[in-house]
Description:
transferase, Nucleotidyltransferase, domain 5, Xylulokinase, six-stranded mixed sheet
Amino acid sequence: MKIAGLDIGTTGCKLTVFDQTGKYLDKAYQDYPVTRKSTEHEVDAEAIMEAVMSVMSLMGHRYPDISGIGVTSFGETFVLADENGAPLHPAMLYTDPRGAGECRELTEKMDGKTIASITGLKPHEMYSISKVMWMKRNRPDVYNRAKHLFLMEDYVVFGLTGTAQIDYSLASRTMAFDITSLKWSEEIFRIADIDPSLMSKPVPAGTSAGCIRPEIAERTGLSAETQIISISHDQVAAAVGSGVFDSTKAVDGAGTVECITPVYDGLPELEVMYAGNYAVVPYVIPGKYVCYAFSYTGGALIQWCVDTLAKKEKELAAKEGISVNEYLEGDAKEPTGLLVLPHFAGAATPYMDTGSKGAVIGLTAGTTVRDIYRACMEGVVYEMLVNMECLKDSGIHFDMLHATGGGAKSEVWMQMKADMLNIPITALKTADAGTVGSAMLTGIAVGCFENLEDAAAHMVERKKVYTPDPQMHEKYIEVYQRYRRLYQAVRPLV
C-alpha cells in the first residue's frame, strides 16, 4: 500500500509517493503556463487538471496500489464552473489587480475590523471574494451560468471524485469564511451579493472526498478504490510536515519567500493580528490556529545577489569545487554592519506595503560581494525579528523553530538565524515539508498512522539543531536597533 501528496502550485503540480511507513519513493512534476498582463493575471484551470492527470498517470502506472492521495494547493485563486466542474473562464490569480475597487466597496459596507473579526483577514484585494464580485459585475454571462465556485484544491478534488468539499484553511483564504464557527459567513456573502450556494462544503483537513471516478482510475492506472483526501492550504501543510503541532514550536519556511508560521492553542487576539496585517487561519488540529509572518524576498533575495553581483565569484567557486553560495558565505563570524532592507518585491508583514523598495545601507570602497551577500542574509532575518516582536502581544511563545526549504541547507544561515532570533532552530532533512504534511494526513485517513504524532515519528526527520550564541546575539541586536528604524527612514525616499 502506498500514500501520496498532490500539491497544486501557481505554475505546476507535483505528486509525491511514499510507502505505508512514510518512506519516500518517487515523485512526478508537471508545469502549466500562467498569463500575466497589466490588467489580468490568470492560469488555465483546465491545464491544471491536465497536469494533475499527467502526474497521476505517471505515478499510477508505476504504483497502482496508491490507497490515498491528499490534495493541497496555493490560496485565493478561484474559478467559476458549471455543474460538471468544467471551468467557465481562466482562473483568476491572487495577484490579479481586478477586484481592488470591490474590496474598497466591501469595507464601506462593513468595517475592516469587523470583517477581520469574522474571517481572520485584514481586507485586501488578493482574497477571492472581491474578485468574485468583479466577475459578477463585469462578466455576468459567466457568473450567471456558474454552479460552483472553486479554489484550486476543491476544483481538483471535485474533478477527481465529484465531491464538492474544501478544507477550513483554504476556505479561509476567500475572506468569506467564519474562522470561529467554521462555516461560510452569510453576512459577508450578503453584503458582497454573492450566492453562497456556489461554495463547496467546508470540511476538516484530512477528510476523504471518496474514491476516484472510474474513468480516472482507467486513465491513470490507479485502483478505483483510491481515496482522494482534502488536506489544506499549502502553508498549513508545511507546518504539519515540519512536525509543529502546538504553540511551543513554529515553522521557518526558508524558501523563495521567508515565512514563519506559529501555532496558537486558541484564537489569538485579533486586534493585534489586524494591526500587523497577520492572517489567522484554522489549523488542522481542532481549536488551533496559525498565522503567517513573511517576507516576499527570502531565498529570492539571496538568488538576486548571486545573479546580479557574483559572476566572478561563481567562477572562483567552480575552481574550488564548491557552490557559489558556500563561497559567498565564507567563514566570517561577525555581523557585517551593513543594513539591507529586503523589500525588493515590496514589504510583506507587518507593513503590507507594495510600494516599499529594497535598500543597502553602509557601503564603502572596501565592501565586498561577500559582505553584501551576508548582509542580505542578515536583512531577511532582521525582518523576521521585527515580525516576532510585533507578534509578542498576540500570545506567541514558541521556544523552537523547525526549518524547512532550501535555506535550511545552509549551516551558516541557520546559525545566523539562531543567533539573531535567540532561539534554537532544528533543520529538517526534507526541503518539501508541504508534501510530507499532505502525506501524513493522508496516511491517517487511510489507516497507515494512528494520529499526527505517529505520522511525525515516521516522516519528520531532523538533521541538526542550531543553538544560539549569547555573545553573537548581543552583537546582532546592536545592529538591529539601527535596522528597526530603516523602513521608516527609507520609505519617504522611494
